[in-house]
Amino acid sequence: MEPATPALERLQNNVKLFAALVEGLEAVVRACANIESEPVRIATPFLQNMWALAAGMRDILRARRQDGRTVWNAPALSVLARALQETYINFYYFAVERPDEEEVQLRRRLWGRHQVYKRLDLLQRADQSVPEVLNAKEDARRAFLVAQDALLEDPKFRGLPKSKADSLATQKDRYIAEPLEDIWGRAGMFRDHYGTTFRYFSQSTHATPYALVQLAYHAAGTEDGAVNMNVPVGLALMCCASALDHVGNLHKEIDALIPGALRAFLKS
Q1: CB atoms near residue 82 (< 10 Å)
Q2: Residue 187: which of 199, 202, 176, 203 has the closest Cα?
Q3: What angle, rounded to 10 degrees, do the helices at 7-32 and 223-247 form?
């Protein structure tokens, strides 16, 4: 058996590949702006957000100290990787997957309710002595009630098991009606890895005692640090590559931008 490639070498190669994917994602986002297509219009905001998150990760991975040594900002990478993971799920669930029309309508209503609820929630936390805040809050409250009523009367929603319907009705900021690991699996990822990966990133995004201890194992330029850095980089690689593969199926002009090498990489 051949010895495993050192993590530092794998990371260097992964970062180069990831940087190329970020450039490809930017090219696709620019192309989407000039394409008149409903599927592309729906997908574009998710792709824009994925590009912003991925570009941030790329720039962090390229960061250097004044003396020229590499800097690995593990907490920042974890935050961006976790958000990228979430955006990829949303992209697949709302823009790629093609369920029946009733399911599409339910998903749109959950998404719309989430948007107006978050606006209302922010306004409720703002300075209530400002008249403009009070007026905006009242508008948001009315919009939320309309969205909530529409959801409760939705035929697909009314056909859900009572426990699931009650959960969706009371968790006002919830906008996906099924386990996220199921969507992760349908989107081409390893279903059982979703929760583990998400928790791994979560450990580094909060200043808990465990996170502070673990930070020592992300030291730049070390083999152990490279092992840990390959987790968010690998996640970002798969999300960006899979997103480009999926979006190529939405329109022929975008498909023409997807290199054959990318699809070969996904099959490898």
Answers
A1: 21
A2: 176
A3: 30
**pLDDT, tens digit, 9 for 90 and up, residues 159-194:** 999 999 999 999 999 999 999 999 999 999 999 999
* Prediction pTM value: 0.92
CA distance 168 to 164: 6
Residue 220 has pLDDT above 70, yes or no: yes
- Which amino acid, one-letter code, is at 200? Y
Q: Which of 22, 21, 31, 20 is nearest to 254 (CA)?
A: 31
List the alpha helices (DSSP H) in the chain: 7-32, 38-61, 74-91, 101-124, 131-152, 155-158, 162-170, 180-186, 193-205, 209-214, 223-247, 252-255, 260-267
How far apart, in whole angstroms, are the C-alpha atoms of residue 219 and residue 152? 51
Phi/psi at 37 (5° precision):
-155, 130
